[in-house]
Amino acid sequence: MGSTRSSHSNAYMYGFFKNKRIVLYDTLIQQCKNDEEIVAVIAHELGHWKLNHTMYSFIAVQILTFLQFGGYTLVRNSTDLFRSFGFDTQPVLIGLIIFQHSVIPLQHLVSFGLNLVSRAFEFQADAFAKKLGYGSALRAGLVKLQEENLSSMNTDPWYSAYHYSHPPLVERLAAIGEPDKKAD
Ligand SMILES: [Zn+2]
């Protein structure tokens, strides 16, 4: 659940194969006095594992790093690149700086795409916890964590779509509560 939109992180999982770990922050344990809510958060993290989210994120980062280095290798000796920025010589450091600045617009698009995927993953992990029977406990836990972390309750959908790696609380609660309201 570790959220980039606040400095507070609640829980996350990392590792592959036989070296998987779920990290629960002590603040989470303090905030969720109810054991069921903590188990619900663990169920959410297990959802990330079961659905291979960690693996997908890892692969995505590798590909992006490869593209970044590959792109730089392609253009680093281009005279056009240096000329268009007013350089007659081709210092390596200047080439690197120009490249880094030129890819910033692309990076914004990529991070937007990654945020889209990340939010979809969060909904899937929530659905996983719900399927295990922790729907209402997860909702209660999410509300409590949100109160403690003092993040905004209902952000503008366009703002959150661009900036947030996690869906806004209201959307998550709605999604968890949605199809089988009688079961909750
Ligand atoms: Zn999560």
TrEMBL record:
Free-text cofactor note: Binds 1 zinc ion per subunit.
Peptidase M48 domain segment(s): 3-178
Signal peptide from the UniProt entry: none
Bilayer-spanning residue ranges: 55-75
Catalysed reaction equations from the record: Hydrolyzes the peptide bond -P2-(S-farnesyl or geranylgeranyl)C-P1'-P2'-P3'-COOH where P1' and P2' are amino acids with aliphatic side chains and P3' is any C-terminal residue
EC number(s) reported in the record: 3.4.24.84
Pfam families referenced in this protein's UniProt entry, alphabetically: Peptidase_M48 (PF01435)
Ranges in a coiled coil: none
GO annotation terms (biological process): CAAX-box protein processing
Topological category with respect to the lipid bilayer: Multi-pass membrane protein
UniProt KW keywords: Endoplasmic reticulum, Hydrolase, Membrane, Metal-binding, Metalloprotease, Protease, Transmembrane, Transmembrane helix, Zinc
CDD domains noted in UniProt: M48A_Zmpste24p_like (cd07343)
Active-site feature positions: E45, D126 (proton donor)
An example Gene Ontology molecular-function term: metal ion binding
GO CC term, one of those recorded: endoplasmic reticulum membrane
Cofactor names: Zn(2+)
Cellular localisation: Endoplasmic reticulum membrane
Major site of localization recorded for this protein: endoplasmic reticulum
Described function: Proteolytically removes the C-terminal three residues of farnesylated proteins.
Stored PANTHER family: CAAX PRENYL PROTEASE 1
Similarity annotation: Belongs to the peptidase M48A family.
Protein name: CAAX prenyl protease
Organism: Salix udensis
